[in-house]
Amino acid sequence: MEDDPTVIRSLAVTVDDVVAAYEHSRGGRPTVLRVTPPYHARMRARLHVEQRADPPAIHLDPARLLAADAPDYPTPESTEDRLRADDGEYTTEAHYEAHTEAVDAWREAVRGHLATAVTLSTSEGPHRVEVKTLGTDGSRRSPR
């Protein structure tokens, strides 16, 4: 069946989409990786900001696509704590620069910590699929 997600064996995602969706979701706007019917064995999950009138599709929280050992996203508070613990002079400018560097470092580090599989919720129950990562430029074609 074209609308049966249990036919999916693997999902392809770009690393950049996972990272961007995760960061965007932290800002309070529901951002997901969306897989739309018709479903096939190999599907592509694409970056999507959830809308009220979304058609039926699978919406994956980007946090589910990060491996358990993925580094934590740096918060402004954790950056401030680190700055103050370093006995350096705290300034707003130093905090901004340090936090920007921490986020950039997280973006690089998390790329190596994507999940290799994810479980989809279906009407038939949980359905586990492989996760395949595509390059960071998104130029590869959909695996469908």
UniProtKB/TrEMBL annotation:
In residue numbers, the region (Disordered) covers: 64-85, 122-144
Domain of life here? Archaea
According to UniProt, the name of this protein is DUF8009 domain-containing protein
Q: Which InterPro entries match?
A: DUF8009 (IPR058322)
Any Pfam family = DUF8009
DUF8009 domain residues: 2-135
